[in-house]
Amino acid sequence: MNRLPGPWGSRIDRSRPIPFTFEGKHFEGYAGDSIASALAASGQWVLSRSFKYHRPRGILSMTGADANTLVQLPFEPNVAADRTPISEGLSVSAQNVNGTLERDRDAIIDRLGRFLPVGFYYRTFMGPRRDSWLKFWEPMIRRKAGLGVVDTTAPRRHFDKTHLHCDILVVGAGPAGLNAAIAAAEAGADVVLCDENPEIGGSLTYGRHDPALLADLSSRLRALPNLRLLTGTVCNGWYEDNWLPLIQGDRLFRTRARAVILATGSIEQPAIFRNNDLPGIMLGGAAQRLIRHYGVRPGQKAVVLATGDEGYCVALDLVEAGVSVVLVADPRSGGETGTFEAALRGSGVAIRKAATIEAAEGSVGNRHLSRVRVGGSWIECDLLAVSADQVPAWQLPCQAGAKVGYDAVSGSMTLSLPKAPIHLAGSVAGDSNLQDAITGGHRAAVAALLGLGHAVGEERISTRPTAGSPARVLPIVAHRKGRDFVDFDEDLQVKDLQNAVKEGYREIELVKRFSTVGMGPSQGRHSALATARIVAEATNRTVAEVGITTARPPVGPETLGVLAGHHEPLERRTALHARHLALNAVMKPVGAWWRPYVYGEASEAEEAIRDEIMAVREGVGLLDVSTLGKLELRGPDAGAFLDRLYTMAHANQPVGRVRYCLMLNEMGSVVDDGVACRMAEDRFYVTATTGAVARVYADMLFWNAQWRLRVDVLNLTGAFSGLNVTGPKARAVLEALESDIDFGREAFPYLSGREGVVAGVPVRVMRIGFTGELSYELHCPSSLAPALWDAVMTAGKTYGLKPYGLEASRTLRLEKGHILIGQDTDAITTPDELGFGWAVSKKKPFFVGKRSIEMRARLGQARKLVGLRFPADARDIPGESCLVLRGNAPVGQITSIGFSPTLGCTIALAYVHIDDSTEGSLVTVKCRNGNLVDVPVVAHAFFDPANARQEM
Amino acid sequence: MKILTCPMNGPRNIDEFQSFGPVRAEPDPDTTADADWSRHLFRAENRRGIVVEWWRHVPSNYFFLAERDLVTNEIIRTFDASERRAQS
Q1: Cβ-Cβ contacts under 8 Å, B13 against chain A
Q2: Most buried pick, A1, A361, A655, B81, via CB within 10 A?
Q3: pLDDT at residue A467, rounded to an integer
């Protein structure tokens, strides 16, 4: 019904009708239509309800920069209807509606507005009770607040990230940006040109300009292979050293440019008067975009508010599109009559000078504009095109360091140049007409090229035209009854801002936070200048003194998917992963690693874990310990280096011996442990815990960057795999394998290490063990680990060897009271609290943390890690992190707990008060169900307290 | 994103690096008073001006030093740790 004939409608393809629904009703648009233009073509002007008063809202800018057109798609909320194209069968619904878009039950709030003054939230929701906010107000506001709905069942979408490098990035492909990009590329620079619109041209595509101009630029651009064009691409921020995110659909280009030219244009400003938010009142650029891009007639009977040539061009366009323009109101008085104004007079349109729009009125329920008041008299119309004022698109320049100023003579916002290699061109730089913008683009290109050291021939940077932009006036006609909106997103009116000042908020940043002006989806694009003017007037300051609020990235909304990218989590598998799967292991993630939790069916896990534990205690088991951190230290100072880093003595450690290592931080807290095997005078093989090895490796190099000892550190974690053969029959299994190593009790005693070959695989073997049984840990190059695993499994058959998983391993170590760093230690655990005094050298002059543990020892020890043994018939069993109480005060917590099949009862490790840490003391533990239980302390290993089995 | 010039790997995005904080004084642990030792551990200077910091290039695990202006966030220069002793 509102569709214009061709050639109007550059974006639409009339041969391809596209059906879709809005609020359940069927509509049809053309391929290339946005949701808003297709609806407007069918006479549907109301797109949403406003945030606070639930007033009907429609098209404002057609740039996707305001909250008026936010709609809900099936899998995506808060979509800008004026930027998002329609697609076959798309189901669109309105947001922030209680009931239907046409009949919104909350529209009543519009009449209660005087009870909702600015800062209402801050005053009201404090009471009446302390929990009123959480219990009452917050849920109520959530229901009323105009937010889209996230569908958690939305299908997975593919998001993508890529890197982009260029000499010069030009943001904005309007006349200035196009000329800048072409000039830079013609001089040989590698140029990227991006624009958020689907086509190049900017205002050349919708403004009243000679089409030959764009055609010429377009053909020059296509001839340049070193100019990459990204349309439909938003530049969403400026970060240090010219790093800019360019977002094209679901792809993020992380862009690094040597120089940047910002030709981001300017933002048209709404005028302020009573009911200035009615559907049917739109910016001049929106009317022009509807006509030229989509072939949609924006109204039947129009009034135009114009303060310059742009406004007169809008009126001429409307006349040409068959709209009856009843009046052009121009707040300026007198002055020269421009060409466009003359043309308009020639076509018989009435022009009234020194006149502005004083108020507007809507049809029933304010669903559409019905008349406007100019000079005291009402004029009927269904369209008001506002072409009154504009501000430079300041967001990107300000992020790059530009400062906002205000030219009081012309009444316009200005931008200073940023310090970084960044140039401004076009209307963002204050170029006020097409010719200036074209020259400005060229000037910016020359400046950028010179900055990059390009020869630019005879050309010099031409100077900026000195003539300022013509004086403009943004009419602010406040009304005693309000509804004169400054910020449409938040339904803020002139008096709200004046009241904010009256409340004592003079500074613009505080006015913003108190009133929420500029916090909505448009981020002050349509309200910042008006706010500055209102606050300036209310505080008797100039607009320049008041300024505008800080602009931070992102420039516009961005989907989380774009930021997340592929989101394929990193995972590591040991070289034996396939072996575990073949044995039907239940695999579980441990940090980035996947480890066998138990072998067998998950449904029978409990029994299988018990069998695995008993196999280790009574026969022999095999554990994949490849995830252990493995470091090799080489150099004449390797021993001295370990002496400084760990608490035990390593410099005097004999070759072929293994020692426990305990690492502290400077604060004296335990941060890691492992073992060190001296393989030669100048060579140690050191293990670290799975989760900490990356940090330990970094710390080693950090310390040595300061100590500068003669030692090299290699991280062999992935390169080497580890197999732990453990249990009373471990020796028999290894002796059944072909090897040059003597595994005999005397030849290879506990805490020693050997190098050799087992079943044809070169290995490093250490007699250590977490399980407390006779254990050999075999480390070999990862590529040979499957062969070694197979050989051990085969040799073990006769002895009933069983591979065991992580859960059995955890229980086996708990039965021995062995700690897990990070699980049984926290940020302040000292060696004394673990009973590890034996592991701390008293003789060494220095090690990291030495001074601090001495100081902390003087402060006195408050707690100790001990064992707790629950009776076999205990009913209440606590969980990890359950509190240990002394009186009513918490003094510690359970750190590890589990059922021991070997002992037939539940056992735990826990921090208890130092006075309760002796064998047999009873401590009180609070269970998850709130019950208190008294448990006896066990001050030694639960199983084999004499540690005889591991030394067999 | 800021660019940091690693003395070994050249200019790289700063998200390849990990900051290890300013180079601190190294009081003698055997002679320093307890209060001074605590201050050494827990109190950072953080004064306006130029600071020398430890940085790590994570992929190569290489540690080096950088002079940075805390007011402007400008990195003035980066250099290998071996130059540190020579300087002081």
Answers
A1: 243
A2: B81
A3: 47
Here the tokens at position A150 are 């996230």
pLDDT of residue A797: 96
Q: What is the pTM of this model?
A: 0.86
Q: Provide the CATH number for the domain formed by A629-716+830-853 in this structure.
A: 3.30.70.1400
Q: Cβ–Cβ of A702/B1 closer than 8 Å?
A: no
For chain A, which residues make up each domain, given as ranges? 9-152, 161-267+392-452, 271-387, 485-552, 629-716+830-853, 862-951
Q: Which residues in chain B are contacts of A698 at CB distance < 8 A?
A: 18, 56, 58, 61
pLDDT in tens, A649-693: 999 999 999 999 999 999 999 999 999 999 999 999 999 999 999
Chain A positions in Cβ-Cβ contact with residue B29 (cut-off 8 Å): 846, 850-851
**Token pair recorded at residue A709:** 């000892």
Q: What is the mean pLDDT of residues A116-138?
A: 69
Segments of A203-313 assigned E as strands: 227-230, 233-235, 243-248, 251-262, 266-269, 281-283, 301-306
Rounded Cα distance, A305 and A325, in Å: 11
- Integer CA distances (angstroms), A478 to A268, A498, A592, in order: 20, 11, 61
CATH code of B1-23+51-88, in short, is 3.30.2270.10
ipTM of the complex: 0.95
Amino acid present at A482: G
What is the distance between the terminal CA atoms of chain A, rounded to a whole angstrom?
95
Q: Which CATH architecture has domain A161-267+392-452?
A: 3-Layer(bba) Sandwich (3.50)
Highest mean pLDDT among A92-106, A463-477, A578-592: A578-592
Residue A115: predicted pLDDT: 62
pLDDT for A2 beyond 50: yes
Domains A161-267+392-452 and A271-387 share a fold: yes
- Topology annotation, domain A271-387: FAD/NAD(P)-binding domain (3.50.50)
Q: How near does any CA of chain A get to the CA of B49, in Å?
A: 20
Contact B37 A852 (CB under 8 A): yes
d(CA A627, CA A574): 7
pLDDT tens column, A137-173: 777 666 656 567 888 888 888 999 999 999 999 999 9
Q: For residue A468, what pLDDT is reported?
A: 47
Q: Which long-range contacts (CB under 8 A, 24 or more apart) does A924-931 make?
A: A924/A884, A924/A885, A924/A886, A925/A868, A925/A878, A925/A882, A925/A883, A925/A884, A925/A885, A925/A894, A926/A878, A926/A882, A926/A883, A926/A885, A927/A876, A927/A877, A927/A878, A927/A879, A927/A882, A928/A878, A928/A879, A928/A882, A929/A876, A931/A876
Closest-CA distance of chain B to residue A621, Å: 37
Note whether A851 contacts B37, CB cutoff 8 Å. yes
Distance from CA of A400 to the nearest CA of B (A): 12
The confidence score (pLDDT) of residue A952 equals 83
Which of A254, A705, A855 is nearest residue B63 as measured by Cβ atoms?
A: A705
Tens-place pLDDT, residues A701-711: 999 999 999 99
Q: Which residues of A840-858 are buried (b: 16+ CB within 10 A; e: fewer)?
A: beeebeebbbbbbbebbee
The mean pLDDT value for A891-907 works out to 95
- Among chain A residues, CA nearest to B55: A702
